[in-house]
Amino acid sequence: xxGVSQDPRHKxxxxxxxxxxxxxxxxxxxxxxWYRQTLGQGPEFLTYFQNEAQLEKSRLLSDRFSAERPKGxxxxxxIQRTEQGDSAMYLCASxxxxxxxxxxxxxxxxxxxxx
Amino acid sequence: xxxxTQMEGPVTLSEEAFLTINCTYTATGYPSLFWYVxxxxxxxxxxxxxTKADDKGSNKxxxxxxxxxxxxxxLEKGSVQVxxxxxxxxxxxxxxxxxxxxxxxxxxxxxxP
Lengths: 115, 113
Fold this sequence. Notes:
The complex is a heterodimer of chains A (115) and B (113). Chain A is mostly beta strands. Chain A has no helices and eleven strands. In chain A, the strands form two sheets. In chain A, strands 2, 4, 5, 6, 9, 10 and 11 form a seven-stranded mixed sheet that branches. In chain A, strands 1-3-8-7 form a four-stranded antiparallel sheet, with no helix packed on it.
């Protein structure tokens, strides 16, 4: 169990540029979540995959955001035409859906700064 | 809807003091409740959980009791250490789907020697 890994740890970009983040979940976990966390706030749900299927999307996930999990393993989150308001920590979490009550395992996050 | 409200921080305590971090929730059904901890530079880690009313979640040093009558899940520890300095998040899972977690804003704890 190597844990959930996210890449990169930090990303600085100029407004209007596109960025892509990667998340590698714990290998046997079938569920993968993306959250966004801003300073002084708790994580806010963005989207969730079960295997390769994207099952839920938050209203926070505008058309500029897209997430994929093509083979049910790693996932990518892309933000197009970034805005300063996109600056936040983007967290990935994974879990194994053995039971109704899940335990989420979080990565260390990707800190995005949009200048 | 579902939401979690935590006591505002930051909280500063001396080593060996008693810790309480308040958490109350609003939910449409019967949620599962969680406490997560985030150490500097790290991801969130599950501290404890409780799945039904009157359950006591515990990890041997921290504990929280699921109180349905007061819709609360307060975190307690009898004697804090410097190493407990972190941000603590209360969370609930959506009772209808179990797939979406709702987090509080976090409470920052600093323990001084």
